[in-house]
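can u pls check wat happens w/ GBH
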Amino acid sequence: MGQITFLCVYLVLSLAQGEQINRFRRKIPDNILFGAGTSAYQIEGAWNIDGRTESVWDHMSHKKPCQIHNCDNGDIAADSYNNYERDVQMMKELGLDFYRFSISWSRVLPTNSPDDINEAGVAYYNKLINEMLKYNITPMVTIHHLDVPLQLDALGGWVNPNMVDWFVSYARVVYELFGDRVKTWFTINEPREYCTQQSSANKSGINEYLCARHMLLGHAKAYYVYQNEFKAKYGGKVGIVLNSVWYEPESEKDAEAAEVKLQFELGQYAHPIFSKSGDWPPVIKDRIAAKSAAQGFSESRLPEFTPEEVELIRGSSDFFGLNHYTTDLVYRNNSVNGLYPSPSYQDDVNVITYQPETWEKTIAPWHKVVPWGFYKLLNKIREDYGNPPLYVTENGCPTGPGLFDTQRIFFYRKYLNAMLDSIDEGSDVRVYTAWSLMDNFEWIMGYQDKFGLYEVDFNSPTRTRTPRASVFYYKKVIKTRKV
Ligand code: GBH
């Protein structure tokens, strides 16, 4: 009841003061599109319905003893498989220009053969896309968002070089099925997150780099499949989505450490695609080669790209897709040996990161509110990669349960302002995506951390959605185009 009262008061106040406040609010450039995002495993549910087979996340969340907070799983999640009409109604309520969602690979290709398309799974995405188009909401689609089909994971997932072709065949299938209506494609979401955290392959300081190599090749080949077979007909855009924290040096002496950290986390994937020269960042090549030699390897643990591969990957994205959530401080402590196991990805980077207690906390231990880090990261991308068109594909703030999410409102206001600061200096931001449209299965945190503009009642059979206060804020930003 208190929450409903709050919503009414908020609404009345914002209507009453709307015009007055508007005059002082900051204008958003006209070319920026606003949307919200989700991903398949995190919202769809229907994990074993209509012929879908398992992904790594079904397997992971069904393991005993439980690997996920509170033993949660995505079996039903927000049940978007059955709630797509309500989901589109929410997009409409918010006034979104677009909605970013992902396709479940094992729902569309349950046997991983491109000839065995699961019509029932395809029907779901058709219904969703067509419903969105009725209301002029543009679909932006992620082809692969962390949910590797279990059968392919059993073969090593992205550490296996065959994954490149398996992914490309899958990408071709979805371009064929939905390309007449979907004009913005994200090949792969957060490759580094998968390679260094989520891949079930042994983390050895070797597999992480094989995985990175294959994901970059898979992305680039899927990009060229679109260019060669679909672009003339459909005229859409294709790009990759990378995630990065902003790494701020703890003090001046740590500038090099922070740069190395950023190169490993973001540059490893961004440099091959977006830099003038292509290939791995020089600093990564040098560090891993030196470490490998000292460790007695006969060659670097970082696999090389052939000159043809460098050319294939370089320039293979129509825009820079960026997921950003928070900032860390970085320092290097050379007096501490054996901080990380050797060889390992962590040891190759060999820095320490943390967030000071004085920064604004949120419910998640990894997340603090640091808008100036977003500003610095956007500037760095503009400077290092020749000011590419930038799509902010995720930005958001976790809260606890409840509709009264003032922290999220202030988070969006601060981060949008930081984005405008960077745009004022010349950054070419075209797209902004709030994560997330609704509460969802937050990977190992299960349903504890809420990212939704809309609350989902995970105890109700219909997974009832209710707008949080931030819905009214975001809606107003979109409508008035002011922050
Ligand atoms: C995004 O990744 C994902 O693309 C999206 O699916 C997800 O819902 C969103 O983040 C919010 O988390 O719990 O201490 O192990 C952003 C990078 C990396 C941020 C993993 C959260 C968890 C740290 N994420 N991290 S911890």
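The pocket of GBH is lined by residues 39, 42, 189-190, 193, 243, 323, 325, 365-366, 394, 435, 442, 444-445, 451 (CB under 6 Å).
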